[in-house]
Amino acid sequence: MRYETRKVAFDDGTRSVRFARPTAPPSEADLSTWVRAQVHGLDLSGAAIGGGGLDWLDSLPLDALLVASPRIVPSLPTATLARLRHLYLAQGVRLRVPISTRRCEQLERISADESHLDGALSDAKCLLEVHLTRAKSLSIGVVDGLPRLRSLRLEVDTRLGDPPFDLCGGGGVAALRSLWIENAHVRSLAGTGTMAELEELVVLPRRPVEVTPPVDLEGLRGLDRLRWLRLPRHGGPQGVDALNDLPALERAVLDGVDFARI
C-alpha cells in the first residue's frame, strides 16, 4: 500500500496528513497496518466500497474523508462522522442514506451536493468552509447559525435557470470572508451590511440577466475589508462611486465597470 501525504488546513493550523487510497475492501490486517502507519485521511472509491458496508471506517482515526464512487455509497458510520474534520463528497455521488449534519460534531470543512445532507448546516457548529453543489437554497440564510464560517461557495442547480439569490440573512455571516455564488444573480447588495469581514464577493450567473432597477453598489458601503468584487452579467450597476470608498478594494469587475486600484 502506497500512501500520499497532503497539506490539509485545520482550524488550529495546516499540517501534513497521510492518506490511503485502497483499491479493494480492506482486511483486518489492512486496517491494523493503516493505524500503525498513522493514516488520518482516506480516498474512498467504488472499488474500496465493494458490496458490503462501511462500518470498518470506525477502526481508523480519520480526520479527512473523500468519497468518489459510481456505486451507491452505504451509510457512513456515526462514530466516523463525529470524528471527521474534512468531508468531501464528489458531485453526483449517490448515498444510500444522507449525511446527518447533527452527527458532524467536529466537521470544519464540507463539500457536497445539498441533497447529500440531512438537517440544517447550523447543526454542524464547527464549520469554517462550506461548498454546496446542485444547491436549491437561494438565500444566505442556508448558513444561519454558523458564527465561525469563513467561506461559502454555493453552486445553484443549473436546472433552476440563474434565479435571484437573496443576500439578506440572519445570524451566521459575521465572520464570512469569501462568498462565491454560481448559476444565480443578485438584485440587491443590502444584505452585505452584516458581513463586516468580507474580502471576496463573487456572483456568477451563467447568462446575462436583466436586473430592474439596476444593482446599487451603495449597499457595499462599510465593507472596509472587501478586496475583490465580481458581478458580471447583471447589467450596468448604479452607485459606482461607492467603490472609491472601499479602502481595501483592489479589483471590481461588473458590466461596464473595470475598477483596479493601483
**Mean of all residue-level pLDDT scores:** 92
* CATH structural class of the domain at 128-262: Alpha Beta
Instruction: Describe the strand arrangement of the main beta sheet, using strand numbers.
Output: 1-2-3-4-5-7-9-10-11-12-13-14-15
Counting helices, strands and paired strands, the structural category is mainly beta
State the separation between the terminal residues, measured CA to CA: 52 Å
Helix percentage: under 10%
Q: Note the main sheet.
A: 13 strands, mixed
| Radius of gyration over C-alpha positions, nearest whole angstrom | 21 Å
Global outline: elongated
User: What's the CATH topology name of the domain at 128-262?
Assistant: Leucine-rich repeat, LRR (right-handed beta-alpha superhelix)
Low-confidence stretches: none
Second CATH tier, the architecture of the domain at 128-262: Alpha-Beta Horseshoe
Instruction: Tell me the total number of β-strands.
Output: 15
**What percentage of amino acids are in beta strands?**
25-35%
SSE run: EEHEHEHEEEEEEEEEEE
List the keywords.
262 residues; 13-stranded mixed β-sheet; elongated; 3 helices; Leucine-rich repeat, LRR (right-handed beta-alpha superhelix); two-stranded parallel sheet; mainly beta
How would you describe this protein?
The chain has 262 residues and is mostly beta strands. The chain has a domain at 128-262: Leucine-rich repeat, LRR (right-handed beta-alpha superhelix) (Alpha-Beta Horseshoe), CATH 3.80.10. It has three helices and 15 strands. Strands 1-2-3-4-5-7-9-10-11-12-13-14-15 form a 13-stranded mixed β-sheet. It has a two-stranded parallel ribbon with strand order 6-8. The longest helix has 9 residues, at 28-36. The model has no long low-confidence stretch (mean pLDDT 92).
